[in-house]
User: Fold these one by one.
Assistant:
Number 1:
Amino acid sequence: DEAVMAEIEKNFGDRLRSALDTTGKDKLSSYAEVDALKKEVVESYPEDDAAKRSMAGKAFSQLKEKIFREDMLGNRRRPDGRKFSEIRPIACEVGWLPRVHGSSLFTRGETQAIVTTTLGTKMDEQYMDDIEKGEVKRRFMLHYNFPPYSVGEAGRFGGTSRRETGHGNLARRAIEAVLPSEEEFPYTLRIVSDITESNGSSSMASVCGGILSLMDAGVPIKRPVAGVAMGLVMEGNR
């Protein structure tokens, strides 16, 4: 309903813009402000008119997307005030854990990964069954762990999720291309990336942290690799 949309934008538009602006505040604070404002919008309509309240909730979500897109395409800025050519602040540390072969702490904005590298013998290779090839061995493994607390949620810890499998494979392929051959470096390599907070690409943080931990472990990689994630917002010819 365009009338409901216009009414919500008139009465709550400025406050929603302020809530979506993460300049000077973190992501979770912004989420909390938006959720509280949405509740206020819905409750501003009669309690006995469930259809109107439902319509208001949907209109609020559409307005949120509209404001986000207008800010990106019209003002050429991200919600946290960065220009399209700017990246979040980056901090890197190596040798962070003293009892492992290699370790790193990679932080980009509100995304952080603790990454470790462990070296093993040929007996430590991963054995897998392949439908076409039969038994195959893998001398390089990358495990990506994305616990619920990294995004401020409480959840159960169980088996590896589809997200963890997919993001781990993505990071593994990026790093695998620059590893030394088995003849040059006859060790089994295992990288574990533990995501402690996430607001941006944690899989690419795993690539950056993984390379740092490999170098800290003394692995003669062919060249360093960095991972960068991009977003695409389009409307017409903009």
Note: The CA atoms of residues 102 and 217 lie 4 Å apart.
Number 2:
Amino acid sequence: MAVKLAIFDLDGTLVNTIEDVCDCFNQALENCGHPRVDDGVIAALVGKPLPVIVRGLLPEGISDDEVDAIAGEYRRVYGSSAKPNTKPYPGIPEMLAHLQAEGVRLAVNSNKPHEAAVEVVNRMFPKLDMDVVGFGAVATTKPDPAGANLLMERAGVIPADTVYVGDTVVDVDTADAAGVRCVLVTWGQGTPELRDDSRIWVVAEDAVDLLNLFLHRD
């Protein structure tokens, strides 16, 4: 399989961030005078644009100004958090290192604010060379393909040379919009029925499976 660029989603694909993300959302809600919500509610929204997540945690009819205030507070809380529970999924660092050694360029496309995405990638994968695009590096969030398109442009590759790896329908939509093949991983925040989406090129069950798909599938 001739893959020159592998674009990965971050949360739920490369890194398990969900516990810290939920803690920070609930802290932001409390700081803005709102009650905490169940972690499962937050987890079901992760991967969507930040304002969409915030609206999903609040009663209907909340003002845009309040959504913006909570989103800003979340960015502040998450940015200052030590993120003690964030860690790569099993086998991911080794899989990425193997791909890089094989000459595959590595990239991350996240809906996190760009600075937060860069910080997590640099802390989790300090020995790897990974191009990162988060919200702010481009003006739109996934599933708009602007981030994926920018990563392909910077790598000097075309969609046929690229594979997009993610765990949710947002990632499938992004890959589809960018015209690239999509690999769905099963260990993140996606739902079981997503496996049946006809736009998915292949499903990976773990990091070893994912590596084998890159190296051995036509």
Note: The CA atoms of residues 124 and 197 lie 31 Å apart.
Number 3:
Amino acid sequence: MTRIVVPGELVASSPQRIEFAFIENGKTYSSVLGLFDEANLRVIPLEGAYMPAQYDIIVGIINEVKFAGYNIDINSPYKGFLSAKDSRYEYKLGDVISAKIVEVDEVKSVNLEGARALRDGEIIEISPVKIPRVIGKKNSMLDMIKEATKSEIFVGKNGRIWIQGGNSALAARTILKVEKEAHTTGLTERISAFLKDEVSR
């Protein structure tokens, strides 16, 4: 069962090591506005900027081309860097790529590798903390959207989503609907009904 919690709300009557929570007087409290998953003892923030983490797969935009490589806008207060020697291709300003974060140092310099160009599609941005809801358990939500819209969809952990082909407009509308209703229960069933209704029109 999940429920909405506010900062300072009790989530466990014993001390528990939970991300986005703090311990006080032997009890555990949420430090953010979020969803508390009681079964798995975790707090999922409902808002917040993307904070890069090692091994995250992101969707980035080339915003500076240098001799040594590329500065990448990763939809974060911090910028990514892709070394020219770690890239198999040459990119130009404005190119959209997917890449993996291999290192985040103590001053939040973000190094990327495994870049792949994402061409000809469109990009939408949602709150990064809603990305798990767009993907769903075992990719269930994402697979359902792909199947209904016949679109190719690549989801970045940083809140950027690339969509190409099929009914891309419906795919984008559905993802934005998931973002808007991410805090509600019965979301999968509602999205399934929404897609069936839209596709049958």
Note: DSSP finds four helices and 14 strands in the chain.
